[in-house]
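Can you give me the bound-state structure? Components:
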Amino acid sequence: MSDITETESRWLSDEDLETVRGRVPMVYVDAVPVRVDGLGEVTRIGLLLRAMADGTVSRALVTGRVQFGERIRGALLRHLEKDLGPVALPRIPTNPAPFTVAEYFPDPLVSGYHDPRQHAVSLAYVVPIDGEPEPSHDALDLAWVTPEEAASAEVRAEMTGGHDRLLRLALAHVGRLP
Amino acid sequence: MSDITETESRWLSDEDLETVRGRVPMVYVDAVPVRVDGLGEVTRIGLLLRAMADGTVSRALVTGRVQFGERIRGALLRHLEKDLGPVALPRIPTNPAPFTVAEYFPDPLVSGYHDPRQHAVSLAYVVPIDGEPEPSHDALDLAWVTPEEAASAEVRAEMTGGHDRLLRLALAHVGRLP
Amino acid sequence: MSDITETESRWLSDEDLETVRGRVPMVYVDAVPVRVDGLGEVTRIGLLLRAMADGTVSRALVTGRVQFGERIRGALLRHLEKDLGPVALPRIPTNPAPFTVAEYFPDPLVSGYHDPRQHAVSLAYVVPIDGEPEPSHDALDLAWVTPEEAASAEVRAEMTGGHDRLLRLALAHVGRLP
Amino acid sequence: MSDITETESRWLSDEDLETVRGRVPMVYVDAVPVRVDGLGEVTRIGLLLRAMADGTVSRALVTGRVQFGERIRGALLRHLEKDLGPVALPRIPTNPAPFTVAEYFPDPLVSGYHDPRQHAVSLAYVVPIDGEPEPSHDALDLAWVTPEEAASAEVRAEMTGGHDRLLRLALAHVGRLP
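Here's the bound-state model for the whole set.
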């Protein structure tokens, strides 16, 4: 994966990142992991479970920053492998266009997507997972839920920053919004 | 594949088909088979080779009619398996929306897509092939060409009915039009 | 509008239509009329009001069949003008690909889209309306609702055949699903 | 246009911009201005003419940076008005997803899109122009060319940085690639 090696070398210190974050929008990718059947129909959606500081559990999508010099495809694969492990076998889409663009702002009222740290422009993709994900990094678990469960009020209440809305947009994109 | 069994029973005689063809547009699917690398980038395009009545060889995409009662996804899989064999392992897209719609008319000047037999509205998809295709049905062979070759004047000259244009639209959709 | 004149001449008797409907899928278009602001953001969705046989009022999208020899664009414009009048000034999208494909079946359980008369494959588009619609044909009225109202349980209950779901998919496509 | 006023205040000095450019990808928008007919079919593509340092004339698309705190829609409108004047009346798309993503790198071999100054991730949109553009800023003129002319070798030779390829992808997206 020479792509990753190259980009890792474009290291950015925490201090530099803080400076940059206040001046330009950051480029991000969001990935909605899914299981599909032989006809390409989405049957399950993968939601990461994370432990929050207050003891509650939050559900999240795979998300992360695109680094200097890194291709979008490389960033997608890197963040999917970081969160789902090396044998998840994600199927990065052939079409470079995202299904939607989520604009995260420090002010939660601007767009409905919220990130207190920064203004981020995130390209969102639905990514079928063929292999066996092993939640890693800071994820406690990966739960595979049905489209109906993914769109439920319960799941909505457990997601933050607008990820619940992004998830419903993904369900709509694949024709599986209940 | 109960989907296929069900639809095969909706048999339509040749005579009935002729009658219907003159009265309403037919629903079709077009599939552009591709090979992708681990980053989802299209590396090769699969073109069927067919022997023509005049002894020449023509290149073609996978194409076929959607039957009464059949899902689009089922029709895509059925035609891909018919032309590429049972172990081609096509990856039907998760998104039900085609990348373009090709409108075939008996008059070649209406839209640039031409079918002397009928007015057909065809939903076109790019389909990654994971397995080992074995050209069958009336296909002589399947050639895997690069995006550059697929967009070349040589390949354009060997395709008919507007399939060369549909192929370039597919290359553009995946960001690989030279 | 020579396009319309031409297609109107491809007349199909009610009897012929019945025969054809039982043998092949029909090609349809669905249009979601919207109002947009200067930034292209959807601010209102137009829902037709129709009087039902049982005295209730139903809300519906613009929908109709594509005729033999007719372009998709021509069918979209024809049905929009039929339901919204001649000065609605619909903006037919530049991209021929629909945002989704709704597959209507006589059996309501196959796909979630239901049409007791036929199997129809419908290409769905979001269409900004610039002019002054005058509901005509068999529409009682056109109501402009907000995205929040369009996604509400109340509106969902007043739509049939899966049009409520198609409407939510349209809202998601334009990034306005609440 | 409060959106513009707000973002203009997020001023970034040339020095700061240089620093940031070497550390993270910049967010850009590319717009392909088009004229459409009443059926939404693209009839002409608008190409900016710019005088180059060496005395030649170069053709270009509308392009520009997304500022901190600025919505994608706002950046699109701002750059279109900057290059085409205040009465161009651009129709920003309802769908926030771009038709493709162009990844510009200082190294011209990475992606085929090239920007010697920076790594930019650009969201590309096709934008119908309803009004009367008056080329301004540093544009000499705006030429409306046919899809055939836009895809010609002559126009390709006059565009730089991969804009010729982006233009052909736009033509393919609207079904007008010859």
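A couple of observations. The longest strand of chain C covers residues 26-36. The radius of gyration of chain C is 16 Å.
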